[in-house]
Write a structure and sequence with these properties.
116 residues, alpha+beta, 2,3-Dihydroxybiphenyl 1,2-Dioxygenase, domain 1
């Protein structure tokens, strides 16, 4: 199960203002502001944006999360039970990326491991 999603951004403050407006219709607001990251959510941070100061914090190192025998082929995103609007929005956005042939290119741009 995934507890949250985070993305890297070049300009944290500018992206923070953008996501405040973009996520408001989904009922998410800014809940946490730190020097290198901002968290958005309803009651707890579910979506994080990370500035360039956090760029060296994390890396894939292999292990069970990339082995198909544990999680099958492909990927999945979990959302809190009952959060149908967020689930449907994510499903639609991913479907459109797949339909346009952009999904794999975008995935491999940000993650060094193919989900397939």
């Amino acid at each position: 199960m995934i507890d949250h999603v985070s993305v890297g951004v070049g300009d944290l403050e500018r992206a923070g203002r953008f996501y405040e407006l973009a996520l408001a219709p989904l009922g998410l607001s800014r809940l946490v502001t730190r020097p290198a990251t901002i968290g958005f959510g309803k009651s707890y941070p579910e979506f994080w944006i990370n500035g360039t100061d956090s760029s060296e914090c994390c890396a894939f190192s292999g292990g069970p999360f990339v082995e198909s025998r544990y999680f099958g082929e492909g990927i999945g995103i979990a959302v809190r039970k009952g959060n149908d609007l967020l689930r449907q929005s994510l499903n639609w956005a991913l479907f459109r990326l797949w339909e346009k042939g952009r999904y794999t290119d975008l995935w491999l741009r940000y993650f060094s491991i193919s989900p397939f």
